[in-house]
Design a protein that fits this description.
Length: 399
């Protein structure tokens, strides 16, 4: 049996190594000049490969998933897979799992080494433009040559990070067999916001909770490090909110505290209100609780002077100041596009595949990873899905 895998990302390399270890003739066709380019960019170059918390709710799709990625590719099965690769995993914040080296290159090297050691072939700089069924085999057509295989697995990724090779063209390979493409939109990306203070705040970080409001109603909230940029906000808790904003048009705002680690401070508002009656300048009062850049924002927003005495402010102005410190509100104008997004939401519809990810329209044709309509939360869930789907197809092929 010969298997052609179109796409040399995590899912393709994982499946390739598994199949090659069983003595199956496997070739990975990669359009870029090397495999694994997107993997090298994940987790800030450290490869967040999975998570301690594998609840089903961390994955999203228009349809019900054909299997539970967390239960099927369980912690035991995942850890055994990485042990065979010679890699140890370590846990960091929010249960994120990384290779002990904290380098994505380590994971890529291990996957490539496993694939090559059993005779797997990487064919780079090869763009598969179309796939045809010819009798009992498949023909893979590139601009320069034609290749044959008994089984084809499409692992081309979605539309996120197109420079890595996942620019959405892989969808056409499956659409050519009559498969349906659901609406695609960027996920795990920064939020674009509108404020006259964003340029001033660029580079500022806050440790705390960000709340997302849709048409005035709070719909989500996440905690962690929030980073301000010239065009909006980013950071792990922000990335989790992108899917909601991109999925449906509405009036979105986010609320962010100016004060770090409020969760550790008890009733900090009552404490600050008491301090506001002590004679001191507004600037002196603010210097003890927020970073310098925030002082400018507070003064401008409330039309206050630095040397104004805070104890002489009337009650309403004092309450307005405290409200601002605890909830700085930004209108959200959108999500950074596919060039910056870490994952594509949407993809080839799942209901046209079996529980083993084999096409119902064309036996012998499979799809794995991000090309399908499955996306996970920020925190290693998308790489976990890539590996889980690869293992699922592997077990089907070798039956």
């Amino acid at each position: 049996m010969s298997v052609a895998i179109v796409g040399g990302g995590v899912s393709g390399l994982t499946l390739g190594g598994l199949l090659a270890s069983e003595g199956i003739d496997v070739t990975i066709y990669e359009r870029k000049n090397r495999v694994g380019k997107k993997l090298l960019a994940t987790g800030n170059g450290r490869a967040n490969v999975s998570n301690v918390d594998l609840k089903y709710s961390h994955w999203h799709s228009e349809s019900e998933l054909p299997f539970d990625p967390g239960r099927y590719f369980s912690p035991e099965k995942r850890d055994a897979f990485f042990e065979r690769l010679g890699l140890d995993l370590v846990e960091e914040d929010r249960g994120k799992l990384y290779p002990r080296t904290l380098q994505a290159q380590t994971v890529l090297n291990a996957l490539r080494r496993a694939f090559a050691s059993f005779g797997g072939i990487e064919r780079t700089d090869t763009f598969i433009a179309s796939i045809e069924r010819r009798g009992g085999t498949f023909a893979l057509l590139s601009n320069e040559a034609e290749y044959a295989a008994d089984v084809v697995v499409v692992a081309t990724g979605g539309r996120s990070m197109p420079e890595s090779g996942s620019d959405g063209k892989g969808y056409g390979l499956l659409e050519g067999f009559g498969h349906r493409l659901t609406r695609t939109f960027p996920g795990i990306s920064a939020l674009e916001c509108r404020s006259p203070y964003l340029k001033h705040l660029s580079g500022t970080k806050i440790e705390g909770e960000i709340a997302l409001f849709k048409d005035g109603r709070r719909v989500d909230r996440r905690s962690g490090e929030i980073l301000f940029a010239k065009d909006g906000v980013s950071g792990p808790p922000v990335l989790d909110l992108a899917r909601t904003v991109a999925e449906e048009k509405a009036e979105y705002t986010v609320s962010i505290p100016m004060i770090n680690h409020l969760e550790q401070s008890g009733d900090f508002r009552a404490y600050l209100e008491g301090r506001s009656y002590i004679p001191q300048t507004v600037e002196a009062f603010l210097e003890g609780v927020v970073s310098k850049k925030w002082i400018h924002v507070v003064l401008k927003t409330l039309n206050l002077k630095r040397d104004e005495s805070i104890d002489l402010l009337d009650y309403d102005k004092r309450a307005e100041l405290l409200d601002l410190l605890f909830a700085f509100t930004l209108p959200v104008t959108g999500v950074r596009g596919f060039d910056y997004a870490q994952v594509t939401c949407g993809g080839i519809a799942l209901d046209e595949f079996t529980e083993d990810l084999e096409s119902k329209k064309c036996p012998g044709l499979f799809a794995i990873g991000e090309v399908l309509d499955v996306d996970g939360d920020c925190g290693g869930y998308n790489i976990h899905w890539a590996m889980a789907s690869a293992h699922r197809v592997f077990e089907k092929i070798i039956k």
